[in-house]
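Re: duplicated header lines in exported C-alpha cells

Our pipeline writes sequence and C-alpha cells for each protein into one text file. With two proteins the header for the second block appears twice in some exports. Here is an export where it did not happen, for reference. First protein block:
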Amino acid sequence: MSDILPHASYLRRRGELQVYFDRTAVDAWKKFASDEPLGRIRATVRAGRDRMRATLLSYLPEDLAGWRILDAGCGAGHLSLELARRGAEVLGVDLSPEMVRFAADRAAGEGAFAARVRFEAGDMLSADHGRFDAVVAMDSLIHYRSEDTLAALARLGERTDGKILFTLAPRTPLLSVMHGVGRLFPRGDRAPAIEPVSPVKLARRVHRDPRLGGWSVGRDARISSGFYISHAMEVTRR
C-alpha cells in the first residue's frame, strides 16, 4: 500500500469533478466526441484537444505491442482507442460512470483492436489498477494544485515502468482572462476551476521531489487553439 496519500484538496476537487462531468457537462462532452458541428468557441476547443492528443501520441512509439497503458481521465475514450490501434493493452479510467459507458459504447463499433481497451469508472490513482508501462493523463490534472499534481505523479510513478505523459493549464495572461470570464457564469453552469501552473516551476519541483527521485523531465509542448490552452509534459524513469 502506498504511503503517498492524496491530499484533502485532491479528494475535494475529485468529488467536484465527478459531479460536474457526470451530471452537468456529460452531454456537452459527448458532443465534443462526435462529428456534430459545434459553435465557434467549442470548435476551437475540439481542435485544440485533437492537436494535444496527437502531441502526446508523438511521445510514444508507433508500435506499442506488449505495452500496458493507463489512460487516466479517459473521457470519451479517443486516446484509449488510438493507443489500442498501435497495439497497446489499455485501461481507460474516468471519474464519470456516464462517460465510461459512452466510451465503451463508442469502442464497441471500432473494430477488433477495441478489444484491447477496457474502460472503468473510478479514481485514476487507485493502486487496484495494477502496473503499467506508461500513463497518459490528458487534461485530467489541470484542475489540481501543483502539490496535488506532484503527489499524483509520484503515486502513478510507483506503478509505472516507463513514462508518464500529462498536461497542465499553463499560467498565461490569456488564460487568466478566460478564468475571469468563466466566473461570470451562473454557479450551476461553471466547470470546476482549473489551476494554472508554471511548467518551468513544476519541472524544477519534479527534479527536487524525493518521491520522484527516479524520474526526469523530458519533452514538452504548448497547444493553443482559441479557448483551448494546454501544456504537455513528459516524465521518464531513469
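Second protein block, exported in the same file:
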Amino acid sequence: MTAVQYPRVVDVFPKLAAEIVELLLADGDDALADVVGDLRYFGPCTCSPTCTNLLTAPVGSSCSFMAQLERDGEVVIWLSLDPTTTTITHIEVLDGRDLGPAARRPD
C-alpha cells in the first residue's frame, strides 16, 4: 500500500488535527502547521502494549526530534519529527482523551 492510499489524519481525527494546527500556530510554527493537512494516518503504533502513538509515517520512520504542544501550561501532545524537522512522524496525545476506534490497536 502506498502512502496516498492511507487516509489523511485530518479526515480520521479532524478535531485533533485542528488542535495541532492551532497549537503550532500559537507557538509560531507556521511551517509545521502547514504540513498537518497532508499527513497520512498509518494506524496506531504497535511497538508495545502501552504505546499510544498515532503513526503519520510508515513504521520504522525516523523520529529524531520532539515538539511539545501545550495548552494552559500543560503538555497535551507530543509530535515526533523527522530528522529535517519538517514533517511529523508520530503524534502522541497525553491528556487521556478518547480518540475513538481508529486510535485503538486491534486485539
